[in-house]
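Quick log. Single chain, no ligands specified.
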Amino acid sequence: MLEVRELCKSYGGRQVLAPVSFVLPPGRCLGLAGSNGSGKSTLLRLLAQVQRPDSGDVLYRGRSVLGDRQFLRRTLGYAPQSAELAVGLTVEGQLKLWQRACGLTGPVPGEVLELLGLEELLRRPIRALSGGMAQRVSIALALLSRPQVLLMDEATAGLDQDYVPRLLDYLESFLAAGGSLIWCSHHPQELERLCGAVLRLEAGRPAI
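-> predicted structure:
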């Protein structure tokens, strides 16, 4: 179970995320909704520990995981809103680099390559990818370690449309197998399909 306790974040003295708390059990999806700038991506970056919160805590199975590299590499998968890839690598090189960072050995999981249609792109340089291709690689990085918790920030935005239903089907299977998902989206139909509950943020605060 993932538990978020009173997470807060400010920039330059301006609070962009007021205290946010929730509990996410295994097998459940929490949707994040709200207008641009409402704090959704900030919340996900704090959970993925791309940024540190000013205060609050994140617990997994009752234990604080702030600063826990093992949790971040093996238990958590994060797909940011914009793909953050190493342009000097090939697709295969990027995938293998992240595998090594996660302490994984062996070939890239075939099911991930097949899900996102990456077999034909493995030798292609990251700098030569279209936006949709780069998004597929970014999602693959989130899935490589077979995490128990997934954070996905507008994962279908810019994704090649042929892969949207594939991804949503995969995530339904992930939830059925006991995974936990936080799904940020502007699409009500995606939130309705995947999420048991939706947290709406307004100006960094949970909307009532």
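The mean pLDDT is 94.
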